[in-house]
Design brief:
Number of domains: 1
Protein name: Putative peptidase domain-containing protein
Pfam families: HRXXH
Number of helices: 10
CATH class: Alpha Beta
CATH topology: Collagenase (Catalytic Domain)
InterPro entries: Fungal_M35_metalloproteases, HRXXH, MetalloPept_cat_dom_sf
GO molecular function, one term: metallopeptidase activity
Number of strands: 6
CATH superfamily: Collagenase (Catalytic Domain)
Distance between the termini: 23 Å
Order of helices and strands: HHEHHHEEEEHHHHHE
Structural class: alpha/beta
Strand order of the largest sheet: 1-2-5-4
CATH architecture: 3-Layer(aba) Sandwich
Keywords: Hydrolase, Metal-binding, Metalloprotease, Protease, Zinc
Helix content: 25-40%
Length: 296
């Protein structure tokens, strides 16, 4: 299992930039497939036959007869469950997260209601599939932006993208298209990380694929902007640098939500208090070496 970590000096870290041209990157046949799915959802809704909740959508470019593709879909599904459960741990015991001080590591006191709403918008009271809004995220197996790196070709100084997401509107519906690069699938799932492996400080040893997916969810305007009133972007990355932001920037920084969720989850599950991240020792990333990992 690869050790997941990120450096605060920028040499190795999760970084993410807003994507505003995902519709231009998506091929027309993909957009048509999405339109067809949205049309089917609308038809079932009018007939009263739509399921109560929608899981994230997986486009047909995942070949379910291919063991690699089907395995990746299962990882994304497991990651969605982990993301939802990370959010539910916080949302269902919010006052405890505030009172024990972990909330204050990542956000300002005045923003408690908005931050809680972001997690609520992910969880949606369903511990397995989460909010119905997650059903409007379409995962594609195609690197439509052409920014992923072929495993084994990473070089010193390269930025290695783990995943990316972008908002767009189709059929009058706010949706998002997301893609996980090959290196992203190396991030462990929650059940593969043990308390004994985490050490005593907040670090990227806590990292799980579900937390990266949760990070992506906050960028989806049905989730993040619906709670904060402003699109959630990226101001800082990793457990160390997010703490140095102003309160205003923390509210609209995706990795702040990721690290609050991770610290609170592992503190609760492991029954121990973790001290704050020290320096680059708690931010190293090996999966993308000799490059640096980013998430867009």
């Amino acid at each position: 299992m690869a050790v997941r970590s990120y450096q605060s000096d920028g040499s190795v870290h999760i970084a993410e930039r807003d994507i505003d041209n995902i519709q231009d990157a998506a091929p027309e046949d993909m957009l048509q497939e999405i339109d067809d799915i949205l049309g089917d959802i609308h038809t079932k809704s009018k007939r009263g036959t739509i399921v109560k909740r929608l899981a994230s959508q997986y486009l047909p470019d995942f070949d379910m007869n291919n063991p690699t593709d089907s395995g990746h879909v299962q990882q994304l599904k497991d990651g969605q469950t982990d993301a939802v459960q990370l959010a539910s741990y916080l949302e269902q015991s919010w006052s405890n997260a505030v009172d024990n001080g972990i909330y204050g590591h990542y956000f300002g006191d005045a923003d408690k209601d908005a931050v809680q709403k972001v997690y609520k918008n992910i969880w949606g009271t369903d511990d397995q599939e989460g909010s119905i809004d997650l059903g409007y995220i379409f995962w594609t197996n195609k690197d439509i932006k052409g920014i992923c790196t072929t495993p084994g070709t990473e070089k010193v100084g390269d930025s290695i993208t783990l995943a990316y997401i972008g908002n767009l509107v189709r059929n009058n519906q706010q949706i998002a298209i997301a893609h996980m690069c090959d290196q992203g699938y190396d991030v462990p799932k929650r059940s593969d990380v043990s308390c004994d492996s985490l050490g005593s400080t907040v670090s990227t040893l806590m990292d799980v694929l579900g937390a990266i997916i949760l990070h992506e969810y906050t960028h989806f305007d049905r989730i993040g902007k619906a709670a904060t009133g402003t699109h959630i972007g990226d101001k800082a990355y990793g457990p160390l640098d997010v703490k140095g932001l102003s309160d205003a920037d923390k509210l609209i920084n995706a990795d702040s939500y990721r690290w609050l969720a991770l610290e609170y989850y592992w503190t609760t599950v492991c029954g121990k208090t973790f001290s704050g991240p020290r320096d680059d020792r708690d931010n190293d990333e090996s999966a993308c070496q000799p490059g640096k990992c980013i998430v867009q």
